[in-house]
Amino acid sequence: MLTTSLPGGTWTLGGLTVTRFGYGAMQLAGPGVMGPPADRDGALAVLRTAVELGITHIDTSAAYGPTVTNQLIREALHPYPDSLHIVTKVGANRDPQGGWPPARDPQSLRRSVHENLETLGLDVLDLVNLRLGDAAGPLPGSLAEAFETLADLQRQGLIRHLGVSNATPEQVAEAQAIAPIVCVQNMYNLAHRRDDELIDALAGQGVAYVPFFPLGGFSPLQSSVLSTVAARLEAAPMSVALAWLLRRSPNILLIPGTSSAAHLRENIAGAALSLSNDDLAELDTIGR
């Protein structure tokens, strides 16, 4: 059942209503996002806990594992509740060394969309993000051929909504000239605020912004200001970082990942932390 009790309430992605506090499944795979998890039962439990707590937005990709997280999602949650919406990404594969080589040619994109459909056990994907750039971040260049391929798959009825990930503002605009997008998924957090202007522009258009690495990536955010505010509020720095993101703009959706059901509950509780205007002003100095 859809709930609004999670921090941040809900947002509409096209015609899909999702909780602003979602769940990112990337960490369910093994080390380096390769292979199976060390604790398969724990991985299944965190997915079921997410849905039990009312989360209706799960982010994944067939490249995670590869296919490991999709298979876990299917085992844990299929048949899916009507309120649950699964978002996936295409545009990168995995190599034996654990790298993320691009796979944005039309044939690779079509194969990846069908792989996501098969491994998730779906007839249509709610939302597919086109992953651009590389592990270091966005790179300039046209996305036209790749995004037109996804738009064609959307017209065929295999995809409901489209988005872009790891994209420059210019690539966002180029995608929008080809087909409507409902979200942009880029790296963003208190300390990495390159997309401030983009977030505000998307908010005005009713387009969601989904920060990946909201807590600083695989290393926690390090900031004396963050630590000071957290100590004053008697909260964990990561709780403050999540709460700040929800306050930053109403179009920001969170997908923090974890392989622990207990940690998932902690993340939800942390994101509900109340921040005063003075707290926000102090935190805003971190990424400026």
Strand proportion: 15-25%
Radius of gyration based on Cα positions: 18 Å
In total, the number of strands is 9
Side-by-side strand order of the widest sheet: 3-4-5-6-7-8-9
SS field, number of helical segments: 10
Descriptive report:
The chain is built from ten helices and nine strands. It is α/β, with parallel strands linked by helices and 288 residues long. The chain has one domain: Alpha-Beta Barrel (TIM Barrel), CATH 3.20.20. Strands 3-4-5-6-7-8-9 form a seven-stranded parallel beta sheet. Strands 1-2 form a two-stranded antiparallel ribbon. Helix 4 links the parallel strand 6 and strand 7. It is globular and about 55 Å long. The model has no long low-confidence stretch (mean pLDDT 94).
Topology:
Blueprint: E1 10-13, E2 16-19, E3 23-24, H1 40-52, E4 57-61, H2 68-77, E5 85-90, H3 106-120, E6 125-131, H4 144-155, E7 159-165, H5 169-178, E8 183-187, H6 196-205, E9 208-212, H7 224-233, H8 237-248, H9 261-271, H10 277-283
Parallel strand pairs: 3-4, 4-5, 5-6, 6-7, 7-8, 8-9
Antiparallel strand pairs: 1-2
Helix pairs in contact: 1-2, 3-4, 7-8, 8-9
Structural key phrases:
288 residues; alpha/beta; TIM Barrel; 7-stranded parallel beta sheet; two-stranded antiparallel ribbon; 10 helices; 9 strands; 38% helix; 16% strand
